[in-house]
Amino acid sequence: MTEDRLIRTDRMRFTKNSLSSNLAIAAIIFDVFYFLKIYQSDVGTFYYNYLIGISVIYNLVFMLAAFLASEGVKNYKKPYSWLLFALGAGQILRIFILPLRAHSAVISSGGVEIAVMGNGQFLWVVACLTISAVCLMASAVVNLVKCTALEAHRKTLADSGVCV
After folding, report:
1. How much is the pTM?
2. What is the structure's pLDDT at 164?
3. Would 65 be classed as within a structural domain?
4. The domain containing residue 61 runs over which residues?
């Protein structure tokens, strides 16, 4: 291991994992963009059902869990990577629930057929969920790589008798 690499790895013992944390925060921000865009629509009674209630509750739980994970990965806690992977998979899954259903739905209002979600709005919400998922997955991968490197470095220090 080069001296520069060794110094960077040793420095991780004293600094926060801000890249992983910031990626998780970015995922929350893109989820908020999704949240705002999807719930500003009010086309007939399409959005007045149990699915919207579940979606609102999931959004709240998602944001709390993602923030918790952002704080966990900031301190190089490996288990939070698995939470981030699960949240990222959940964001991808969400594309196929409400946005896809709303995009394919048409309601009749005053004898006129109206699309519940137009192509522009659909692309926007899918992009927000996709970017959110990518940020979560990237945060998890970066954290796993850094945690593994830091654990190996601490083990090396402990084996050489240096106080960890």
Report:
1. 0.89
2. 56
3. yes
4. 18-157
